[in-house]
Amino acid sequence: MRQDNKKVGAIGEDAAAQLLRKKGYQILERNFRTRWGEIDIIARGKWKGRTLPLTLFVEVKTKTGDQYGEPWEMINMRKWQQVKNMAQVYLTKNGLGEVPCRIDVIGVWLDLDHEVEKIKHWENVTGLDLIGRV
């Protein structure tokens, strides 16, 4: 990855973490690595007003420009499967087998000076509110 891409990605992940905190989520991990790759952010928060906490697995996509459409459209089926596998590793490793979990995407658009221009949070992009299995 080019140095500029790393910088852009880090700016986007910082902005996404800040957004999640503002929404009341606690950041548990950033850049959680497994053999399938890395989950950008893992967070915990409330789940539809229930007492059980919700664990979020968040893929952050940062863009500079309008190419490729929406950020979530940059994620192919292979990447979705990798995120599911990585989420399962995290749940197992941390003894969280039966907790509500969800996969979200946060898109961050930067201007030419690498300042955040826009940020958008797509919740539950896989269409599943899951308990312990992703």
UniProtKB/TrEMBL annotation:
Gene3D superfamilies: 3.40.1350.10. One of its GO terms (molecular function) is nucleic acid binding. Pfam families: UPF0102. SUPFAM superfamilies: Restriction endonuclease-like. It comes from the Bacteria. Belongs to the UPF0102 family. This is UPF0102 protein AUJ59_00595.
